[in-house]
Design goal:
The structure is a single chain. This protein is an alpha/beta fold. 22% of the residues lie in helices and 28% in strands.
Amino acid sequence: MKVQRVEMFVCPSATPADTSGLQALADGDKIKADNLVALVGKTEGTGAHDDWGRVWADVALREWTARLLGVPIDEVAKHVIFVLSGGCPGVITPHIAAVTREWVDAPERKADDKRLVVGRSGSDAIAPADPKDVHLVMVKVPGLTVASIKDAESRGKTVVSHDLTFGPEGAGVYANDGAALGVALALGEVKESALSDEVVRRNWDLYSEVAMTSSGGEKRHGEVVVFGNSTA
């Protein structure tokens, strides 16, 4: 029978644009065009709205991934998920973790014997779809910038905040928390009838136990990586 073999390789980053660790893994056939699922990491810097380390890393990683896959840069997001969180306070060091997935032959198992699996938005369905088997949902969503706020207002729209920090009323935390509630809704942790724009960062009884969310102005669409257990 065929099962998923999920592996994660952590590469320290000397600079936000450092892809040498990933290239070494590719040279050793650990990372290949057909098994790379996601690149997840923490980037050098403060993590504030004016910290460009994450943006620099995002550009460098997309360029490297495009070369690995042999596709144009603007098509990379169709194949690989990028979840980068800016800032390395305390003892956190800059790094990129490459998540890979391969289907391998394995001995027959009991029908209820579960193992680690990984999926991404747009991937083939992973059975079973029991929300209790989902243990981590990593989400990266767009964040507001000066330019995107001006664009919205030029179209007669309003935005949740003009504060571009990650403070209590900052646009970043609204984006992160809204994404977390989306995960909670998808997994049945909250009811759709309980959700509205007004409850984000106001009703703390609504939350997800498995969501890990981040936002950035360099994003134009949401990207999702799901880790869980499955009999597949």
